[in-house]
Amino acid sequence: MTEANSKRRSLSGRFDGASSETLDAINVSVGFDKRLWRQDIEGSLAHVDMLAQEGIISSRDASQIKQGLQQIQEEMKRGQFEFKASLEDIHMNVEFRLHELIGAAAGRLHTARSRNDQVVTDFRLWTRERCDLAIDAIQALILTLLDQAESGIDIVMPGLTHLQTAQPITWGHHMMAYVEMLGRDWGRFRDARQRMNECPLGAAALAGTSFPINRDHTAQSLSFDRPMANSIDAVSDRDFALEYLSAAAITSMHLSRLADEIVLWCSDPYQFIRLNDAFTTGSSIMPQKRNPDGAELVRAKTGRITGSFIALLTILKGLPLAYSKDLQEDKEQTFDGADNLELSLAVINGMLQNLTPIKENLRQAAANGFSTATDLADWLVREVNMPFREAHIVVSDVVKLADKKRLALSELPLADLRKIYGGFTEEAQGVLSPENSVKSRISYGGTAPARVREQIAIWRETLT
Ligand code: ARG
How far away, in angstroms, is 212 Cα from ligand 1 center? Predict the structure, then answer.
């Protein structure tokens, strides 16, 4: 029997002729779903074990099937397995080979199972693994950010709003902002993983089966918490992959913001950081160039990862229960999203390990733009009980004068300050230095190094 005929015979008795090449072109999925081979064999091993245990097939058949599956596993590991497009998908490829290896007993593996519950079991196992990888990679990135935060705990830099100098902050505080974002991403993957950890195997085509299967057995052997409670839901939904992709899209959005800052920071007008050669690319025409291509690509990957999420969401929308072939389109989206998320996390982690903040430039930029104007207004409120709105007006005049004299606020002589408001003292002048400004912001969540140090300690504790 040819493979094509064999596939037709195993899939339905109603066909005499071969399928059209055009139909095959849209229908065949082994080119991409072969990535599920580990999970497919794992799922089949659990299924066959259960069938034998419950006396649904003989233990002789079961052990033949298991041996055959293990041999296929070896062939795949060694890259010796020949995937055939004529056999449509990974499941039929494995089954056909099993038939070649052990003969008739192979036909008993699919008892009480359908490709509908088989494929979604494979895919859940795959997605669960990628959740674990994302969780680990995010954790590694957070640790790198904590190192950056710790070593730059009191490096003063400008904090921006509208990309304009606003108030001085510290490098440590800025890094810790990303720790918080990625901490939530980490939590999202952990939540998604927990929710997806239910086993669809045993739902069969959609209605369950008349065989006395033991779904707890298969769920347990595949390390799921429990079997899914509704067989229709089990074969129909792909919300677990959507949750993975939405967490991936949000994470990659965070990564793209960090990537964008890296691009800005290492540009000539900024010169806030230096990137090591390992994470810098050159230009084919301009010899002076040191380009942050890695960060730019991470910034761009967000489009692709978010695209995967939107694509899968759109594929699922409006699908009637239960299985439709539309669901075959779930895989490439999720594969691509996962590959690119993991790559992005690794690249950003590498870049952060290979960048050094340039302290002097950051300090200088922090003093520019009258960044401590708010500190002076706060001083007036605190020390002379001036209403904040009035203080705001006084300090606006101070800023105007400093601007006119081309001086930073902290360079303005006390006499000048007093011309605007007679009550200014040396102490008032003291609050104008960026270092004092950051030290003073001790409110919970504020930029004061003492506060940031506490947060670093909390995160280190959480991650160990
Ligand atoms: N390759 C298919 C998929 O990925 C497997 C399930 C096929 N089931 C079916 N009833 N045609 O969804």
Answer: 24
